Amino acid sequence: MRGGGLLVAGTTSDAGKSVVTAGICRWLVRQGLRVAPFKGQNMSLNSFVTRGGAEIGRAQAMQAQAARVEPSALMNPVLLKPGSDRSSQVVLMGRPVGELSARGYHGGRQQALLGTVLECLEELRATHDAVICEGAGSPAEINLRRNDIVNMGIARAARFPVVVVGDIDRGGVFAQFFGTTALLSPEDQELVAGYLVNKFRGDVTLLEPGLDMLHGLTGRRTFGVLPYAHGLGIDEEDGLRVSLRGAVRESVVAPPVGEDVLRVAVCAVPLMSNFTDVDALAAEPGVVVRFVDRPEELVDADLVVVPGTRGTVRALAWLRERGLADALVRRAAEGRPVLGVCGGFQVLGERIEDDVESRAGEVEGLGLLPVRVRFAVEKTLARPSGEALGEPVEGYEIHHGVADVRGGETFLDGCRVGAVWGTHWHGSLEGDGFRRAFLREVARAAGRRFVPAPDTSFGTLREEQLDRLGDLIEEHADTDALLKLIESGPPGGLPFIAPGAP
Prior knowledge:
Keywords: Cobalamin biosynthesis, Glutamine amidotransferase
Function: Catalyzes amidations at positions B, D, E, and G on adenosylcobyrinic A,C-diamide. NH(2) groups are provided by glutamine, and one molecule of ATP is hydrogenolyzed for each amidation.
Family: Belongs to the CobB/CobQ family. CobQ subfamily.
Largest sheet: 7 strands, mixed
Distance between the termini: 39 Å
Pfam family, one: GATase_3
Radius of gyration: 23 Å
Structural class: alpha/beta
CATH topology of the largest domain: Rossmann fold
Protein name: Cobyric acid synthase
């Protein structure tokens, strides 16, 4: 097989397209096939930097790991990073090319990118046995169909079969499957091979009569019913979701090694980006991670993390409006740990000069670190490595702000003053040795008898979760039928469902 493929669409956003795509990738690579993930256009504030210096969605980087291949810009040629409700930065082939309003993008610019998207897909097809494409939102967003480059537009251009995923946990999945199919044109319906039920709880036999009725109404089969799986900890496009050891805002799953737990509060700033940085903390036994938006929620926190954001100045204003800025200043004065990452690092500094992102000019920071930040037009995209706290560290950088560090102790190209740390490096806590050293420092400063687990491997945990996704597909989907679709394309002869039928 060479160049086969499948489009995983969804009835809604967050139906489970990303994890199903990753699961199919992991299942296929375990069958000895060369597999690549693909998403023509992604809208997300969670992104990653490839070894080639290209910025892509973290979901595609995770899917590449599931497929056991190196992530590349080919896998996500268009990335939209929202800066407001109405505009986004457009990242093309891993590099920012400008800001566009939603109207400007969907009004014509999007269609102009179709050629690039299809070229990337064809290049992946030429070098892999199968390409598993992830759609975006729903293919039945008929107001956007004309310029679509990520759902049925891709499927029709590549003649890929489409499997539609629906989240039954939300309810209404049969109506979603039927309505999604009925709203498509005859040419698009021809490619919809069937459905995949996601997040089912209970006895599958109770669901089967409904699946039979759905087949009778649409002429299309259901390829599997995936059970609800807790604690998958897989990178999504956006939204707070489960960590590797349990859901954020929930209690500790794994007991602490030492006498105390360690409580981490993450400020849920506007346009929060790469909040996956805290996943490695949540993976540690005895570490509780929660996202907060009130100053009183910082009182019992042993560590406060100010994460990355697409709107640094806006996040700074939000921290002040909420009273969180004052709480952070008090913590620093008391010697209680604070970590700022990327945009969070920038707000902890003395001053921000921004004529690029917010165009707010000069803005006073929180003054917790001796740093002045100036926003540059060109974005920094890098994969740095170094050493901190006596341990090797690797990370990745995605930022317009250029930091002028004027004092303090050097810390991952940022700085540290007392118990306040700041860095532009995302992903640094995924290094097991460095994470343990950092948590020991936090525990000491917080006065906690917390001991990091000596054998926790974030990489191993991530691999275990990707294998769980592969297991879900292998054990609960009709893999023979899926493989036939990937090899042979759309089945053909499927009936057209007119809107309003039956």
